[in-house]
UniProtKB/TrEMBL annotation:
InterPro entries: Fe-S_cluster_ET. This is Ferredoxin. One of its GO terms (molecular function) is metal ion binding. Its cofactor is [3Fe-4S] cluster. Keywords: 3Fe-4S, Electron transport, Iron, Iron-sulfur, Metal-binding, Transport. PANTHER family: FERREDOXIN. Coiled coil: none annotated. The lineage of its organism: Bacteria, Bacillati, Actinomycetota, Actinomycetes, Mycobacteriales. It holds the Pfam family Fer4_15. It comes from Nocardia otitidiscaviarum.
Length: 67
């Protein structure tokens, strides 16, 4: 699994940072920065951040699935 952000959708609400501060950083007037693309042990926090993103700018991609 890896985290992906669509910067065209991100408006910097920082909900992701609230849900998973170990994975996301949002500057005061900016867009999200993913600190670690592979959520590892923080997968549940990553799922919550994706779920509660107000603009749906975040997603989790399963690299193990065949195309």
């Amino acid at each position: 699994m890896r985290l992906v952000v669509d910067l065209d959708l991100c408006q910097g609400h920082a909900v992701c940072q609230d849900e998973a501060p170990e994975l996301f950083e949002v500057p005061k007037q900016g867009q999200v920065r993913i600190l670690r693309a592979d959520p590892g042990a923080d997968l549940e926090a990553a799922r919550l951040a994706v779920r509660y993103c107000p603009t749906q700018a975040l997603s989790l991609v399963d690299d193990d699935k065949e195309s």
